[in-house]
């Protein structure tokens, strides 16, 4: 089954869809126009989309032959960012832009839907399409799973555009591909006093400064040099005037790790460090770590399946096995905790990085994304038979 030729033939249609999404970006959980557009297109293929969570669209393509169910996922949300590309099809919504390629993902998955629904007569099993809201915010994936989207699903696949790969190149990472995240807030309570009489108070700002520095030792001394983690303190607020000891300090940051064991160990170590430094300086600290997105950890069998599908489709020279994960996060990890699967990358050859107001992916990669989704799902159905 060669999907690439068929996808290239429908490239103008997929491109037009992508531009439609791009002109009308919507933030997480507000993807109403996007969801309506997705539903209308699926309905035109004689499919029966279902709306979940307000702005999620789930739709089964049932093959004529018996077989398993596999899922393909695209995210729908845009970012709070003013576009600066100056292109004719730039965002028409002030301050909102598809700067992470989710317009690309939605259009590519609709392309795959068309490729697969045109071949329902010879398809064994069911392909479930997951058009998911709110990837950038509060983990739309987690809520869509709680709503039952993976019921009966034996494997799940998804993709993200990657600007540093040439357009149409495919990258697959075995094992850990994206980091897990733990955002945190540290509140330090001291005692205000006159700046001339520090012995009468407890300086929360000084404790905060020591804590910022000491937290860097977590990665340097609590993580194996051959493993990776990063801890960033991104904001520090304390004090009201130059001659008053700060009675309170608030730090906010993010810990990124690979593997649940490392994640739990580093959260515990950081909490202990913060508490004891604050206490040693006559203050008290409260540390609040949020359990953010889990890492994206690809399953070996499904990663091999995507690699083979990509090589069949595009030739071996267009496919790269990636050897380094990214420290960024992606809520696709929730799906991979529930069922086996693989989250892969499609190159869109672009100088501007993701989340840049000048992000401008090469649309030549659109038919590749559509065809590879279709091919991966098709081969997964065969593999599960
Ligand atoms: Ni993204």
Protein described:
This protein has about 375 residues and is α/β, with parallel strands linked by helices. It has two domains: about 5-180 and about 295-385, Aminopeptidase; about 180-290, 2-Layer Sandwich (Alpha-Beta Plaits), CATH 3.30.70. Helix content is about 35%, strand content about 25%. The protein contains ten helices and 14 strands. The strands form three sheets. An eight-stranded mixed sheet has the order 1-2-4-3-5-14-6-13, with helices on both faces. Helix 8 packs across helix 10 (about 365-385). The longest helix is centred in the C-terminal third of the chain and has 21 residues, at about 260-280. GO terms for molecular function: metal ion binding; N-acetyldiaminopimelate deacetylase activity. Keywords: Hydrolase, Manganese, Metal-binding. Its cofactor is Mn(2+). This is Amidohydrolase.
């Amino acid at each position: 089954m060669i999907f690439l030729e068929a996808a290239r033939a429908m490239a103008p249609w997929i491109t037009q869809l992508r531009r439609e999404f791009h002109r009308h970006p919507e933030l997480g959980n507000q993807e109403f126009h996007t969801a309506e557009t997705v539903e209308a297109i699926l309905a035109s293929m004689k499919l029966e989309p279902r709306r979940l969570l307000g702005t999620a669209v789930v739709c089964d393509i049932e093959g004529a032959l018996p077989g398993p169910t596999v899922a393909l996922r695209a995210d729908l949300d845009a970012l709070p960012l003013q576009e600066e590309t100056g292109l004719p099809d730039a965002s028409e919504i002030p301050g909102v832009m598809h700067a992470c390629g989710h317009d690309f993902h939605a259009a590519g998955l609709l392309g795959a839907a068309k490729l697969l629904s045109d071949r329902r007569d010879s398809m064994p099993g069911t392909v479930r399409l997951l058009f998911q809201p709110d990837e950038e915010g509060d983990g739309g994936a987690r809520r869509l799973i709680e709503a039952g989207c993976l019921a009966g699903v034996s494997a799940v696949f998804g993709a993200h555009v990657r600007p540093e790969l040439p357009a149409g190149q495919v990258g697959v990472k075995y094992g850990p591909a994206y980091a897990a995240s733990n955002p945190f807030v540290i509140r330090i309570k001291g005692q205000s006093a006159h700046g001339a009489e520090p012995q009468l108070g407890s300086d929360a700002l000084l404790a905060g400064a020591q804590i910022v520095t000491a937290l860097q030792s977590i990665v340097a001394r609590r993580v194996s040099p051959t493993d990776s983690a990063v801890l960033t303190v991104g904001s520090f607020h304390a004090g009201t005037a130059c001659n008053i000891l700060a009675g309170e300090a608030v730090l906010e940051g993010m810990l990124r790790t690979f593997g649940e064991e490392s994640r739990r160990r580093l959260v515990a170590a950081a909490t202990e460090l913060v508490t004891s430094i604050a206490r040693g300086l006559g203050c008290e600290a409260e540390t609040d770590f949020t359990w953010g997105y889990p890492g994206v950890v690809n399953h070996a069998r499904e990663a091999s399946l995507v690699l083979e599908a990509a090589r069949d489709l595009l030739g071996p020279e267009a496919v790269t096995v990636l050897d380094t994960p990214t420290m960024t996060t992606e809520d696709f990890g929730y799906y991979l905790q529930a069922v086996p699967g693989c989250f892969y990358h499609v190159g869109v050859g672009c100088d501007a990085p993701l989340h840049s107001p000048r992000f401008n992916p090469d649309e030549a990669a659109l038919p590749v994304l559509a065809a590879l989704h279709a091919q991966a799902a098709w081969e997964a159905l065969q593999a599960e038979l």
